[in-house]
Amino acid sequence: MPTPIIEQLFKLSEHKTTVRTEVLAGLTTFLTMAYIIFVQPAVLSGKMFGTDTGLDFGAVTTATCVSAALATAIMALYARYPIAQAPGMGENFFFVFSALPAATAAGFSNGWQVALGVVFVSGVLFLILSLVGLRELIFNAVSPSLKNGIAAGIGLFIAFIGLQQAGVIVKDPGTAVKLNAHFASPDLILFFVGMLTTAILHARRVRGSILWGIIAATVLACLLKFALPHMPAGMSSARDVSESMLNTRFEFAEGLVALPPSLGPTFLKIDVAHALTPTMLPFVFVFLFMLTFDAIGTLIGVCEQAGFMRDNRLPRAKQAMVSDAIGTVAGAALGTSTVTSFIESAAGVEAGGRTGLTGLVVAALFLVALFFSPLIAMIGAYPPITAPALTIVGAMMMQNVAKIEWKDYTESIPAFLIIIGIPLSYSIADGLALGFISYAIIKAFSGRSREISWLTYALAVVLVLYFVFVRSRMG
């Protein structure tokens, strides 16, 4: 029997659930989304790409777990829904590949701080819109086809990056990219073991399939590290570089448990002043749109599955939106990208989670994970281990193409431009701009201008200005 406080707070009896069911549901949700703990710091720090963005890996790890725990706890206690939150996939890549380079190209020496400022401002705007009830205006300004095109395009981009970072796809002077033929290299073996393990478990509906795939690849990496001799330094061919990555980039953790990494390198290092300059404002609005799409889309999907919808409306939707907004604002202040609701929460709902108690369990597990930071650093620093997660998540996001109105060319062509534009331009912002600008023009000159709102046209104008004044500077 639940304690009177738990029963009064979460109304377990009313929702026909128990403490045991809620705890198991929380564990299930955490297992399905725990990959973000390894992927997020690897993406934001640049370790996944062999670059240095300026963001400290350890600080981002702590910021990721703390912001996820905070936002999920607010969702659990304020909105009382079994929905977990964490830094979102898609927004993190937009941060690294669009917002940060734009800040650097604009002449800001502290590019990552400006990008965090952009995330912070978008979170504040989302909080204001949530409190005054105007979030629907933004959400409704974009057609369902474009929303689904954005999700699919980002999914394709994420998967493409995963394949590149694992060494499956390599550069080629004749065709830009090609398939790496050296399938016997340790990197590719690890990637395919991780990806196929994840895919098979996911197909068999095993909970936490992505996390299990990461674990399988990690175990194999450790075994290969012991088994393979250290390769001599000075290797320079493409094959040698690929085959030596295991020995040059994968290092055993010095321990399994340690105190959480310090937040000092990123805490309150946001540059709001430069984030509000004309150069960066388009990125503020894109982050705002992405947060709006993710939040509302995930809420509708998970709550529909759980049976929370009433007359096509979601009770306490305002409270749920506020938790997303506070999570994003707090996450930026701590040192991570946009925090949003995770669709993986559906796994917990399927396991029986119906109240905020499920979320509290998830929040607690994110805090516990902080004490395993050496293990997180070991896994996150070696791309072939985390790349399978990107590939599988990308495949999941591609499901959205089925929801595009393909027979209506005023909808499908702009959506297609977004889908293909994001990965081919290697920029989420550029892909979005192609789609939104073409959408407004095609609708206007097809005699269907009244089908879209003034806000859509305003966004198209903003993105044209982005191309002219921002993108042109970046080359």
Summarize the structure in words.
By secondary structure, this protein is mainly α. The protein has one domain. 67% of the residues lie in helices and 3% in strands. It contains 21 helices and four strands. The protein has helices at 4-10, 19-33, 35-45, 57-79, 91-105, 111-132, 135-140, 144-166, 186-203, 209-227, 238-249, 272-275, 281-306, 317-334, 345-350, 356-369, 373-380, 383-397, 409-425, 428-445, 454-474; strands spanning 85-87, 169-172, 176-179, 339-341. The strands form two sheets. A two-stranded antiparallel sheet has the order 1-4. Strands 2-3 form a two-stranded antiparallel sheet. It starts with a helix and ends with a helix. Residues 231-243 have low confidence and may be disordered.
Quickly describe the structure:
Helices cover 67% and strands 3% of the residues.
